[in-house]
Amino acid sequence: MNNKLARQGLLWSTIERLGTQAIQLLLMLYLGRVLGPSSFGYVGMLTLFLSLAQVLIDSGFSAALIRKSERTEKDY
């Protein structure tokens, strides 16, 4: 692989990650201002649940399912 292409890919990946984090931060600041403490707490709990689910998805669960040669409906 070309060194220039690797650097360019790393740059775009970094921009994507920073952009996502910035949007999430701004959204949480906005929701914290608009919603009351109780409603914002619900949003925080939902965010935590979704983050944990994303960790499970990113940790290779789908790759492990693909490797299994005899899948059933129960696996999904």
Any overview of this molecule?
With 76 residues, this protein is mostly helical. It has two domains: 34 residues; 41 residues. Helix content is 83%, strand content 0%. The two termini are 36 Å apart. The model has no long low-confidence stretch (mean pLDDT 84).
Topology:
Layout: H1 3-34, H2 37-67
Question: What are the segments in which pLDDT stays under 50 over at least 5 consecutive residues?
Answer: none
What portion of residues belong to β-strands? Answer: under 5%
Rg (CA only): 19 Å
Helix content estimate: over 70%
Main β-sheet: number of strands, strand sense, barrel status?
none
* Beta strand count: 0
What is the global morphology?
A: flat
Per DSSP, the total helix count is 2
State the domain count.
2
Distance between the termini: 36 Å
- Average pLDDT for all residues: 84
Structural class: mainly alpha
Order of helices and strands: HH
Membrane topology: Multi-pass membrane protein
Pfam families: Polysacc_synt
InterPro entries: Poly_Biosynth_Transport, Polysacc_synth
Subcellular location: Cell membrane
Record keyword descriptors for this entry.
flat, mainly alpha, 2 helices, 76 residues
Brief synopsis:
By secondary structure, this protein is mainly alpha-helical.
